[in-house]
Amino acid sequence: MPFLFLDRADVESLLPMDECIEVVEEALRSLARGEAVQPLRSALWMPDRHGLLGVMPGMLGTLQEEDPIVGVKVITVMPGNHTHGEESHQGVVVLFEQERGRPLAILDAGAITAIRTAAASAVATRALAREDAGDLAILGSGTQARSHLEAMRAVRTLRRVRVWSRNPESARRFAEEAGEGVEPMGSVHEAVEGADLICTVTAATSPVLEGDWISPGAHANAVGACTPRARELDASAVALSRLFVDRRESALAEAGDFLLARSEGAVTDAHILGELGEVLEGKIPGRRSAEEITLFKSLGIAVEDLAAGRHVYRKHLSDAAARASMPGLQREEAG
Fold first, then answer.
1. pTM to 2 decimals?
2. What is the mean pLDDT of residues 57-61?
3. Which uninterrupted H or E stretch holds 56?
């Protein structure tokens, strides 16, 4: 089997949001069942800390299952890239088969990250948000804002969408491109007032969302901050919420939203109630009442990337086999 390279366009065409949501949910369930290996990632900061190189290994499935894989995502995170018209996340996901360690494919990591991150938030929203939640606030206006709007629309019927950005023109442009029903707001408070769904997808290193602004019964997906010294939520927002994470070990090492709240004495380690996969598998309760505030702190983990990458790889092979079985199409392409 030839070694494949699948670029951004390939990934985007083979990984629609609705499919990725189901793929990510099953990956998180597998992790909770002990059928995946998820080490801590490592990060190498650039000399002036303007960005970092992240290395995220993982393993999904066992040799007794269908096409188990081991792999790694190697990615750079450069928050300032938007000023140059480039994506902040760039890199590759490399897939290997487990039995003999053969490399299978290299896939564009920027596209996988954009889609699977929002898919994980959709899984959390489906599991933790109220069934009638539909007033969405998006804090941020970049790639993850766009993918999160698509993901939230996939799991909830949205009545209203408000977006805020530090750059008001970016919020206005996002709302215009997103279509009817999306409103740009001048402040975070205005954006989240009365919202029952909140997605924080900013590049902030200090809090933009305060606990006093979150309505009872809301569910929040905190996505943007992914290092121990960065946060989007203040301590009260974390303390008020029933907190769930993608991986406990990762949150205790990297989640600035939680770690900084803990350092300020607002919470303890016990405030992390469990992993999202454990909720999905029924091992721990999620939302217990309509009035509770729930919070999913998303750092992004390699098993999500590997599951999404394997799905893309499988579909590519299936499509290639289908084309090969159509002689008329082969002649047309050859001509």
1. 0.93
2. 94
3. strand 52-60
